[in-house]
């Protein structure tokens, strides 16, 4: 996907070493999870049970995270118009929260499940957005909010002076040519110049830049590479170096055993683990084995 | 004493059970907040949740603790800090951590059916919970309570009294106490002193009268039990909490042998202000001969020697005996015994012309050997054993209730220590068997069991006696409180028969021995670092070891006692005699005594003094003068010649 990006720091996208970090305090971190599973069949119609949750955890002066906000939603997903009347009635009676989906893909189970996944992901994004907006209202005078993912989904969040989005996936390309090469070959401990992002998923213009947390040499180009989003404001350009240094300091502790530990900040990983621990146990990850898990 | 449960207390943890680490009827695991008062030895309560288990309550003691974070491998920490340890602490976020504890079940209610510990919330045990957990409710709240405070359970911020059951500490159900710990940390002796004070304060009336007899085998350890020590406010609060008076023992009788001069006391309690309370302990042949085994068993005494000793005991001692060479003997003192032997040897040499080397079937070599061993004691233990003087002994028929009898043998030859121990314990047993001691139970405190009842080494008479007390004493009311540094090296039956066991700080090498395998590594670690005044207690009612704190004993410690009451230097012979006589009768004028004894033989004076001490007449000086003026004998009925025993080398040149 191609987005629009306009350089707002200098005339050419450059690489900048980061200074000594200063870590703000307090800082809150927001992340979310999703779980879903096919729980019933009506012929080939697959009825899905889903669970999404998001939480904000604030880091105190001692470096310990405490939950300050949390939202969760458990709901069913089904193409009601393609279900038999008795089962449809039973589902409507038993599921207090029901998300209707289009039944056109019922006969194509794989594509149907992809649609279900998209639906769940969209619901999760919505939940995170709501929680982020609520959290910004409760944010302290000097407190920052760091989100896992795009900042620009919510105008309120995207315009907040102390909100940051940390994006690990680089499906959208904002740069090209020499600028793209410089971004993808950033040395560790360096950032790119700040550029403005709009269009595509980006509903509200934000300023963004790339930051390399870990050396990519010996790995792939995206290893340790994150894209940071902050509000579209000249102050962001001024602060980009200090914010990069802060995020660089967040490399430790490592977010292992997460597979993308090189780009995942530990506090965001921590929020995710917190949510996983509180999620209902009857929903297995959809790719998990259905065999009972044992410790022996 | 026991505070009631606070139903509003908040849970401090929650039981967790997994397939790999399940909860069982005897063990469970729980987690707490990182910042918690729980530690090794803390007693916790689990309350079952849900309709099935809501009534089930489980009490446990924490035996192991774990802490870990979500760090997958140590290498990740190295990577995160880029190999620089100084940067490892700079991480802005603290990893998620857990405090995970293992607890051993102390008690479940209801006790049947015995089931795994439920997954429930964990609470800190309060006083009432501690009483229930340790099954103290049975003897604490019964119609005839038998609870003896042993200390305060202070883990998890609590301050709960812990009690021992007198029926299991002093008999008859179980008895004896053993305490182990490294030396120099003021735990073993202090603990016994506190426990004796506690016993005296709480020994139930329906169980009769109790006394204690302590052997002081090290310096001035037990010499000042009647003097108040310095107690902190915290110690006084603990005494109040335990219901034990924070004051020294009200009735203490200290016995010490005399020095070789026969008049100065062989003890460190010789300060003029205190020496009057010390009774001399001196024994003659009659008191010693029954314990000849003590003197002989460590050498090469064989059956022949045994037979000869039996012959002496049955046919000679205290009887009129014709030696067959024309002399009639009545052997009552060591001096008499020496004359007896000389008469026989002379008889064999002169009368028999050296042709015979046996007398009444006993070979002369055997007799020489026995003579050397027996007479040797009066040399090596001079002051404790008198050649021919009368004895000064413990009140074997008049032990008083709640009185501590201390026998100071710290400066006595090891052989003499064995003798004192063997005779005192034997007499206690005899008197208790006859119910003539004056009390119903006696606690005998013996320190240094590593020396007196080692697990290996020869079978000494003392060891046999300790085994006998351990195995049969509880029926008689003869209770052994033993202390040692290395429990693993004390005879197994001595420590095994101790119903109650206390552990102070232990040496790690000792903890590595098989006897401590039942303890978890954490408990061992705690034992290896126990502070002064804290003990681990095992008692028949407690299903797991419990840690308690006890207050500093309310008595003057030996070292402090010596500083506050420095021992007086040995006084000249005449001055020592004066002091002892003045102690018997304050009216006596010193110069009168000095004039009287100025030109007398010291042995004559000693005998007269001993006679006065034993008789305690109304007019001491007149009696002393009379006895000194006439001939002093060991037995007033019998005239006895004055002979001293020629000194013998401890190591004889003779080949026996």
Please, could you describe this protein's structure?
The complex is a heterodimer of chains A (296) and B (656). By secondary structure, chain A is of the alpha+beta class. Chain A has two domains: 1-24 and 143-251, no CATH class; 33-142, no CATH class. Chain A has six helices and twelve strands. In chain A, the strands form two sheets. Chain A has a ten-stranded mixed beta sheet, with helices on both faces. A two-stranded antiparallel ribbon of chain A has the order 2-9. Chain B contains 24 helices and 22 strands. In chain B, the strands form five sheets. Chain B has a ten-stranded mixed beta sheet with strand order 12-11-17-10-18-19-9-20-21-22. In chain B, helix 21 runs parallel beside helix 23 (602-615).
Structural class determined from secondary elements of chain B: alpha/beta
Distance between the termini of chain A: 46 Å
- What is the highest CATH level, the class of the largest domain in chain B? Alpha Beta
| Total domains of chain A | 2
Summarize the structure.
Chain A is of the alpha+beta class. Chain A is built from 6 helices and 12 strands.
List keywords for this structure.
heterodimer, A: 296 residues, B: 656 residues, alpha/beta, Rossmann fold, 10-stranded mixed β-sheet, 24 helices, disordered N terminus, disordered C terminus
Protein topology:
The complex is a heterodimer of chains A (296) and B (656).
Chain A: E1 4-7, E2 15-17, E3 27-42, E4 45-59, E5 65-78, H1 85-94, E6 98-100, H2 109-138, E7 144-148, H3 155-158, E8 163-167, H4 177-184, E9 190-192, E10 195-199, E11 202-212, E12 225-231, H5 234-249, H6 266-278
Parallel strand pairs in A: 3-7, 5-6, 7-8
Antiparallel strand pairs in A: 1-10, 2-9, 3-4, 4-5, 8-12, 10-11, 11-12
Chain B: E1 13-16, E2 27-32, E3 43-47, H1 50-53, E4 57-69, H2 74-80, H3 85-88, E5 97-109, E6 121-124, H4 127-133, H5 137-140, E7 147-153, E8 160-165, H6 166-169, E9 177-180, H7 188-202, E10 210-216, H8 233-242, E11 252-256, E12 278-280, H9 285-289, H10 292-296, H11 303-316, E13 320-322, E14 328-330, H12 334-351, E15 358-359, E16 362-363, H13 364-380, E17 404-408, H14 414-433, E18 441-446, H15 449-452, H16 461-476, E19 478-484, H17 492-496, E20 500-503, H18 508-511, H19 521-528, E21 534-538, E22 546-549, H20 558-564, H21 573-584, H22 590-597, H23 602-615, H24 620-629
Parallel strand pairs in B: 9-19, 9-20, 10-17, 10-18, 11-12, 11-17, 18-19
Antiparallel strand pairs in B: 1-2, 1-6, 2-5, 3-4, 3-6, 4-5, 7-8, 13-14, 15-16, 20-21, 21-22
């Amino acid at each position: 996907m191609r987005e629009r990006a306009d350089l707002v720091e200098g005339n050419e996208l450059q690489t900048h070493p980061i200074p000594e970090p200063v870590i703000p305090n307090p800082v809150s971190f927001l992340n979310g999870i999703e779980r879903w599973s096919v729980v019933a069949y009506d012929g080939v119609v697959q009825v899905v049970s889903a669970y999404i949750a998001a939480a904000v955890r604030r880091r105190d002066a001692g470096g310990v995270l405490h939950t300050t906000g949390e939202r969760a939603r458990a709901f069913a997903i089904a193409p009601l118009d393609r279900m038999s009347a008795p089962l449809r009635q039973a589902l409507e009676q038993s599921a207090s929260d029901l998300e209707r989906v289009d039944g056109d893909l019922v006969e194509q189970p794989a594509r149907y499940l992809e649609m279900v996944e998209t639906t769940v992901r969209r619901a999760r994004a919505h939940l995170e957005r709501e929680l982020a907006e609520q959290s910004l209202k409760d944010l302290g005078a000097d407190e920052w909010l760091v989100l896992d993912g795009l900042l620009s989904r919510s105008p309120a969040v995207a315009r907040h002076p102390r909100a940051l989005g940390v994006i690990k996936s680089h499906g959208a390309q904002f740069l090209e040519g020499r600028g793209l090469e410089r971004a993808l070959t950033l040395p560790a401990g360096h950032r790119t110049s700040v550029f403005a992002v709009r269009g595509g998923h980006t509903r509200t213009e934000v300023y963004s830049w790339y930051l390399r947390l870990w050396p990519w040499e010996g790995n792939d180009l995206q290893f340790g590479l994150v894209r940071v989003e902050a509000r579209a404001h000249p102050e962001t350009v001024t602060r980009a170096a200090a914010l990069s240094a802060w995020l660089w300091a967040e490399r430790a502790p490592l977010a292992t055993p997460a597979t993308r530990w090189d780009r995942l900040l530990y506090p965001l990983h921590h929020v995710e683990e917190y949510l996983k621990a509180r999620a209902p146990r009857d929903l297995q990850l959809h790719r998990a084995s259905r065999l009972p898990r044992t410790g022996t | 004493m026991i505070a009631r449960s606070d139903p509003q207390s908040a849970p401090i943890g929650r039981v967790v059970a997994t397939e790999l680490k399940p909860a069982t009827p005897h063990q469970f695991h729980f987690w707490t907040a990182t910042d918690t008062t729980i530690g090794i030895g803390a007693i916790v309560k689990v309350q079952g949740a849900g309709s099935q288990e809501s009534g089930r309550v489980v009490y446990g003691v924490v035996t192991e603790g774990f802490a870990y974070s979500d760090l997958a491998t140590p290498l990740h920490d190295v990577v995160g800090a880029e190999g620089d340890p100084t940067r490892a602490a700079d991480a802005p976020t603290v990893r998620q951590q857990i405090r995970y504890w293992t607890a051993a079940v102390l008690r479940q209610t209801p006790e049947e059916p015995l089931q795994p510990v439920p997954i429930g919330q964990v609470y800190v045990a309060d006083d009432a919970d501690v009483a229930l957990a340790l099954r103290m409710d049975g003897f604490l709240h019964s119609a005839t309570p038998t609870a003896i405070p042993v200390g305060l359970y202070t883990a998890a911020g609590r301050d709960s009294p812990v009690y021992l059951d007198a029926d299991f500490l002093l008999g008859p159900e179980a008895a004896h106490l053993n305490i182990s710990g490294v030396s120099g940390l003021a735990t073993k002796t202090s603990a016994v002193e506190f426990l004796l004070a506690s016993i005296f304060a709480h020994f139930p009336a329906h169980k009769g009268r109790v006394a204690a007899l302590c052997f002081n085998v090290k310096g001035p350890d037990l010499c000042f039990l009647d003097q108040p020590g310095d107690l902190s406010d915290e110690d006084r609060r603990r005494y109040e909490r335990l219901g034990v008076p924070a004051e020294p023992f009200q009735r203490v009788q200290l016995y010490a042998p005399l020095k070789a001069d026969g008049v100065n006391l062989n003890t460190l309690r010789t300060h003029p202000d205190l020496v009057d309370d010390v009774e001399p302990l001196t024994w003659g042949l009659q008191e010693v001969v029954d314990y000849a085994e003590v003197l002989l068993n460590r050498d090469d005494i064989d059956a022949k020697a045994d037979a000869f000793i039996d012959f002496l005991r049955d046919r000679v001692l205290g009887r009129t005996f014709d030696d067959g060479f024309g002399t009639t003997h009545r052997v009552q003192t060591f001096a008499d015994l020496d004359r007896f032997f000389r008469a026989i040897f002379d008889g064999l040499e002169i009368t028999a012309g050296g042709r015979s080397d046996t007398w009444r079937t006993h070979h002369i070599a055997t007799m020489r050997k026995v003579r050397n061993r027996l007479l040797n004691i009066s040399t090596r233990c001079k002051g404790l054993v008198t050649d021919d003087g009368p004895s000064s002994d413990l009140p074997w028929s008049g032990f008083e209730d709640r009185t501590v009898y201390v026998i100071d043998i710290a400066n006595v030859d090891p052989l003499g220590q064995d003798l004192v121990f063997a005779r005192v314990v034997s007499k206690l047993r005899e008197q208790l068997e006859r119910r003539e001691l004056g009390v119903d139970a006696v606690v005998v405190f013996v320190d240094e069991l590593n020396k007196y009842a080692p697990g290996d080494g020869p079978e000494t008479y003392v060891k046999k006696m300790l085994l006998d007390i351990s195995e049969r004493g509880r029926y008689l009311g003869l209770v052994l409180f033993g202390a040692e540094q290395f429990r693993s090296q004390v005879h197994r039956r001595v420590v095994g028969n101790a119903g109650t066991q206390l552990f102070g700080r232990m040496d790690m090498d000792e903890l590595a021995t098989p006897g401590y395998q039942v303890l978890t590594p954490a408990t061992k670690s705690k034992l290896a670092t126990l502070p002064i005044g804290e003990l681990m207690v095992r008692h028949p009612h407690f299903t797991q070891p419990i840690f308690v704190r006890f207050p500093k004993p309310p008595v003057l410690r030996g070292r402090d006692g010596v500083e506050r009451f420095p021992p007086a230097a040995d006084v000249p012979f005449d001055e020592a005699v004066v002091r002892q006589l003045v102690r018997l009768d304050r009216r006596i004028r010193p110069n009168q005594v000095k004039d009287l004894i100025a030109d007398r033989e010291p042995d004559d004076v000693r005998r007269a003094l001993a006679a006065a001490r034993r008789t305690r007449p109304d007019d001491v000086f007149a009696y002393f003068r009379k006895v000194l003026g006439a001939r002093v004998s060991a037995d007033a009925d019998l005239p006895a010649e004055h002979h001293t025993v020629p000194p013998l080398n401890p190591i004889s040149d003779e080949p026996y």
